[in-house]
Design brief:
single chain, about 160 residues, Jelly Rolls, 5-stranded antiparallel beta sheet, 1 helix, about 10% helix
Length: about 160
């Protein structure tokens, strides 16, 4: 009985910690990859509003994949658009496993989550709607094993 109460207490403390860590979260969304098959031409679009042009933010690209994903990395074309119409295109490599084939993200069962810090300590110069689009750049018509892709924007207290 004491073990169950102890486990419940740990779960509650962990949950409260997770909730309190997200109070600086501006945006967090995942897009599902249908049938875990990401077509070369399919783009995933994320849109978020920014009002604060003074604070600093970190932007993360998040990947949820299966253990059957056949590669150790994932190449992306990432297009970002500001409210004034300015766009930027980045080519991003996400390393998902080490040189021994061990997945680097956190896992539960056969599913792994990996967060890549894409932009660190940035300021949004203009208030309004920002758009970020992902397109897989693996040169494979149907990339298997990617379940979801996400984007997370977090306000930070100060620059390191």
């Amino acid at each position: 009985m004491k073990t169950k109460i102890h486990i419940l207490a740990i779960m509650i403390v962990t949950l409260l910690g997770m909730i309190s860590c997200n109070n600086n979260l501006l945006y967090d969304e995942y897009k599902k990859i249908e049938n875990e098959s990401w077509s070369l031409n399919d783009k995933l679009k994320f849109e978020f509003e920014v009002d604060d042009t003074v604070g600093f933010y970190n932007i993360f690209i998040t990947v949820r994949h299966t253990q059957d994903y056949p590669y150790n990395n994932l190449w992306l074309f990432v297009k970002s658009s500001a409210p004034n119409g300015r766009t930027a295109l980045d080519t991003v490599e996400i390393i998902l496993s080490d040189n021994k084939g061990r997945w680097l993200g956190s896992g539960l069962g056969d599913i792994y989550d990996f967060d890549l810090l894409w932009k660190k300590g940035i300021r949004f110069a203009i208030p309004g709607k920002y758009i970020v689009e992902y397109q897989q750049a693996m040169r494979i018509d149907d990339l298997m094993g990617i379940k979801k892709m996400g984007l997370r924007v977090e306000k930070i207290k100060q620059l390191d």
